Amino acid sequence: MTPRFAPGTHVRVAEGEPSGHVRTPYYIRGRHGIVERVCGAFRNPEELAYGRRDGPPVPLYRVRFVQSDVWPDYGGRPGDTLDVELYEHWLEEVTP
Amino acid sequence: MRNHDVGGTHQDEAIPREQHAFMPWELRTDALLWILSDGSRAGGPQMTVDELRRGIEDMPAEDYRNLGYFSKWLRSMIAITTERGLISSSELERRAAAIAEEEAREHAREHHSE
Amino acid sequence: MSATAHGHVDRSDEFLERAFRELLIERGVLTQAEVDARVELMYAREGAAFGQRVVARAWIDDAFRTRLLGDASSAVRELGIEIGALKLVVVENTPQIHNLIVCTLCSCYPRMLLGMAPDWYKSVGYRSRAVREPRALLAEFGLVLDPKRTLRVHDSTADMRYLVLPLRPAGTDGWAEAALALLVTRDSMIGVAEVVAPA
Q1: How many CB atoms lie within 10 A of CB B97?
Q2: Domain count across chain A
Q3: Residue A1 falls within a domain, yes or no?
Q4: C99 CA to chain A: closest CA distance, Å?
Q5: Contacts with C, B 90-109, CB within 8 Å
Q6: What confidence score (pLDDT) does residue B114 get?
Q7: Catalytic residue check, C156
Q8: Per-residue pLDDT tens over the stretch C109-164
Q9: What are the residue ranges spanned by the domains of chain B?
Q10: pLDDT tens digits for A22-62?
Q11: What mean pLDDT is predicted for residues A12-19?
Q12: 3-state class (DSSP) for residue C171
């Protein structure tokens, strides 16, 4: 499966609160970051968690967020960042 | 469902610094986890780490907070194995009770011989 | 196991594990020998020795360091370290950047290189605070970061596992690789400490 996003792409994490097993932390949903690297393609944990092992691999990205964009009360330095691994179906490209 | 999703949500929680010594049953629990989710076994893994994580995430909030790390993994393995029909919860209960009884008798015997 | 008010130890987890294991063995799902072998292996590999070797090699061999930062799993295998299916990412501390690793959703950890994860790493407190107030957390661990340095936190939410390549301490020029390896601490490879040379 060809990854949709190249490193450097600006992306936004989907909102949404699915009730099952997901590996997208609540704190990062709706946030805007930049793809730091393409990690490869892996079977979707949201499917694997329910015994469904036949699905296609999904591209996984490491996305870098500026901490002060994630937490309104972030008390560190302006350049501090937070990297999170996110599956492609949670991301959409946005204009910088 | 969000018991486990704790990034940024428990800022007042202290970080305990004491390290407990790993009990043999904990190491055996870890070994069982490894073996059951080992993808290199003939026929594939019995279960995936994703199912086991889901098993932990589905626990009542109180259990998630109060049970130890290995206790949670053990209970999740049991839940997934039971879900699969590999064992039944009633036979597990009976077996655990029998073991507890056997240990109690051993303990009483040791005390009597002192 | 836990001690109750009367000093009796609660062994219910121990009994549950044994009952579960016995039933699995009786069903032919696994054998006692497999369990014993795995526990033996865990004892034998316990500790951060493999991580220490990776860091020490990266400190003295710049080409290795470059390969490590590009494809960490392959680079680690070059050293003969068996990591199985581990997908490793090594992040490098520099004078400008400090890295910190956490798994907020559970407690993912590069066990093959660092041994069993410490209790504090698995705690809700660490998992919650490492992403949101990492500088305060580091200060609690005794590491006060220079405000001019950038702090990068890595939440290992999926298949990758992370290892920090700490800064080589001053005063270690000409040291043998084995001696350097012994300086490297587990905590420095998670990012809550830096490596120091003895005074």
Answers
A1: 12
A2: 1
A3: no
A4: 10
A5: 91-92, 95-96, 98-100, 103
A6: 60
A7: no
A8: 999 999 999 999 999 999 999 999 999 999 999 999 999 999 999 999 998 999 99
A9: 46-112
A10: 999 999 999 999 999 999 999 999 999 999 999 999 999 99
A11: 93
A12: coil
Residue from the list B36, B74, B81 with its beta carbon closest to the beta carbon of C17: B74
Both tokens of B54, joined, read 């889901």
DSSP letter at B108 equals H
Domain that holds residue C137: 49-190
Q: Are residues C17 and C103 in the same domain?
A: no
Q: Does B112 touch chain C (CB under 8 A)?
A: no
Q: In whole angstroms, give the CA distance from residue A32 to residue A65.
A: 7
Q: Which of C26, C44, C73, C49 is nearest to C182 (CA)?
A: C49
Distance from CA of C116 to the nearest CA of A (A): 22
Domain B46-112 sits in CATH at 1.10.472.20
Q: What is the pLDDT of residues C80-103, one digit of tens each?
A: 998 888 899 999 999 999 999 999
Q: What CATH number does the domain containing A19 carry?
A: 2.30.30.50
C4, pLDDT greater than 50: no
**From the candidates C12, C73, C74, C107, which is the catalytic residue?**
C107
Contact B14 C125 (CB under 8 A): yes
Regarding whether C150 and C121 lie in a shared domain, the answer is: yes
Q: Residue A54 belongs to what domain range?
A: 10-93
B-C C-beta contacts closer than 8 Å: 139
Q: Pick the catalytic residue: C12, C106, C123, C128?
A: C106
In a domain, C152, yes or no: yes
C159–A40 C-beta distance less than 8 A: yes
**Would you state the structure tokens that stand for residue C113, as one six-digit string?**
């290189």
**C1 occurs within a structural domain:** no
Instruction: Spell out, as residue ranges, where chain B has pLDDT lower than 70.
Output: 1, 113-114
pTM: 0.94
Pairing of strands A10-13, A91-93: antiparallel
Interface check A50 vs B, CB under 8 A: yes
Kindly name the residue from C103, C123, C156, C188 that is annotated as catalytic: C103
In the Cβ-directed half-sphere of B92, how many Cα atoms lie within 13 Å? 22
Q: What number is the ipTM of this complex?
A: 0.96
- Pull the structure tokens for residue C118: 């410490």
